[in-house]
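Recall that a protein's primary structure is simply its ordered list of amino acids. Everything else, from secondary elements to tertiary packing, is in principle encoded there. The following example makes that idea concrete.
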Amino acid sequence: MAGHSKFANIKHKKAKNDATHGKVFTRLGREIAVAVKAGGADPASNARLRDVIAKAKASNMANDTIERSIKKASGAENGDDYESITYEGYGPSGVAIIVTTLTDNRNRAAANVRSAFTKGGGNMGTTGCVSFMFEEKGLIMVERSVGIDEDELMMIALDAGAMDFEASDEGFEIFTSPESFSAVREALEQTGVEMISAEVTRIAQASARIDSEDDIKKMKKLLALLDEEDDVQDVYHNWENEE
C-alpha cells in the first residue's frame, strides 16, 4: 500500500474525471438519489447523504449542482429507483476485480458488465469469488500542499476514530473503519482541511502483476469498457502496475 502509488492513482483518476465531468456527476447524482431515498433530503439528519456530498465536493461538483440533485431526488414526482448490485470476477493474468453498480435495470447491468469482462480478456465470477481479497475501509487523502501540520492532522484524525495514518512525500492517507468514516471526515471538515478524496472504498490485501504486454492491453480495455457503462459506479482491482 505505497503512498506514492495511491496518490498517483487518485490524481490520474481525478484527471480523467475532469475530462468527463458529465459522466462522473451523473454517477454522483445517482448516489445522492439513493442516499436521499434512504434517509431524507436533510444532510443534518442523514449521515449517508453527508458522506456523498463530501465525495461530490472532492470531485469538484459545484454546490448548486449538489443542491439541484438533492432537490430532484426529494421531489414527489421523482421516479428514479436504483438498485445496488455488485459483480466480481477476474481480469487478464488473474487480476481480481469488483464492480459496483447502481441501476434501474439489473438485466442490462449484468449483461453489460459481463460483456466488458469478456471483451477485456477476463471472466465474471460468482458472488464472493474475489471479495475476500479486499478490505472495506474509509480512505481520506490530503495533499501536503494544504499546509497543515502533520502531527496536528494525525491527532485530529486519530482522536476522531481513525484506524491508521500514513505520511508520504505527496501527502497523508487516513484510514478508518466504514463505521467511523463519517466522524473522521466531519472532524477534518470542521478544521477546514481540504481533502482530494474522501470515500469508503475497497483496498486489496495483495497485489497482482501483469507482465504480458498483451494482457496489459486487455486489462486497460476491460477497465475502459467498465468506465463507459452508465450503470457502473466504482471499479476496484488489485493490479499493482496500473499507469
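The longest strand covers residues 134-143. Residues 158 and 164 are 8 Å apart (CA to CA).
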